[in-house]
Specification:
With 461 residues, the chain is of the alpha/beta class. It has 2 domains: 169 residues, Aspartate Aminotransferase, domain 1 (Alpha-Beta Complex); 245 residues, Type I PLP-dependent aspartate aminotransferase-like (Major domain) (Aspartate Aminotransferase, domain 2). The chain contains 14 helices and 11 strands. The strands form 2 sheets. The chain has a 7-stranded mixed beta sheet, with helices on both faces. A hairpin with a 2-residue loop joins strand 8 and strand 9. Helix 3 packs antiparallel against helix 12 and helix 5 packs across helix 11. It is globular, with a radius of gyration of 24 Å.
Amino acid sequence: MNHDDLNHWSKRAADWTRDYYRTLRDRPVRARTAPGDIARQLPKSAPEQPEPMKDIFADFEAIVPDGMTHWQHPRFFAYFPANAAPASILAEQLTAAMAAQAMLWQTSPAASEIEGVMVDWLRDALGLATHFRGTIHDSATTATLCAILTMRERALNWQGNETGLSGAPRLRIYASDQTHSSIDKSARIAGIGQDNICRIPTDDSLSMQPEALNRAINLDKSNNYLPTGIILSIGGTSVGGSDNLAPLIKVAKHHDLYTHVDAAWAGSAMICPELRGLWAGVDGADSVVFNPHKWLGAQFDCSVQFLADPAPQVRTLSLRPDYLATLEHNDVPNFNEWTVPLGRRFRALKLWFLLRAYGLEGLRERIRNHITWATELRDEIAALPGFEIITEPRLSLFTFRFESDAQTEALLTRINDDGRIYLSQTRHDGHFVIRVQVGQFDCTRDDVMTVATVLRELSNG
């Protein structure tokens, strides 16, 4: 295949993409395959000789679409979305074509500089203070790992990277049970250990209790443990719980602890000024992460981390051997030093296209619609016999239960086997509950209200 062939097949792929989105609403949301079904359709080994692209494309059409769960389906309400606005898809095609490794400014000047400007655009769009700077990661998990590594090094007076953790005090991180599992994974990878995440009790609004946090820190100090940092959550994955940031950050500052705010999903909603009360006090945090790929429409992967002061994170993660030295320009940021991987994709291009193609007001309208429709759906479900709303809508996420745990689980299985919608589950207060999260980029009110129709039909079965 050469570039003339690429031109032809790119147009064919564009036609396929258009038709895919036109017919997506007619497909079952979740793949109807069993484990091994796809693998059995593939040869056991790679071909020795080239094969015609028409055969390859035909196999793609025959095998792949029906074997996928369709994350861009307008009735995908299961997880926080991984959206893909058309403008973002176009930008990703161009990024793939240039195939740049944007690890340093000198290897991709436009990628580095557009990244800096896009982070500033988003900072201002979210109403964050102007002292924040930032970078783009693949996911919030990576941003959280970077923050926890920074907490660790700061607490150890920057000695952990050099001498290791052997002989160091027992390090402690503080979070509520509403935080994402990426905190647990990061504590493992950072050598702190999952058992050293101190879970702080929450109040009725699912926020960490400042008094309990302060007591836990003081207790650890009395046991000669080393408090390391605090993870705060805005829009937790399970039911959307959020910490009351201001009093918790006050406790952190009293103990000189680094704070990281995980707003991976809910952060996008902060482009709406009327919603920013949800994270009042955020400007006092050291690190904040949100994922434009969840609710703003940027193609996965695209996670933005804002830093009140980048220096501690760069000091933690920077490693510049001679072959990566930038001889002509030592004063430009090299964003590989702000994160774990050396290699970096040109993720900023899709943000540039996205923000210009839809404008902040166009993106605000989508988010406001999703929140409104989720509230309307909540009311419809509450009126159905046997249904109980367990957690009220937090932005566009709420949970419900049907009669008993066993009945709720059986209903969820029927829902997802039915194919018209896709929902997921969690446990809250010891009960099995069903989550509804409205956020797919192109969904309509009719799509959202289909959930009530499906529940009405399948709960009577």
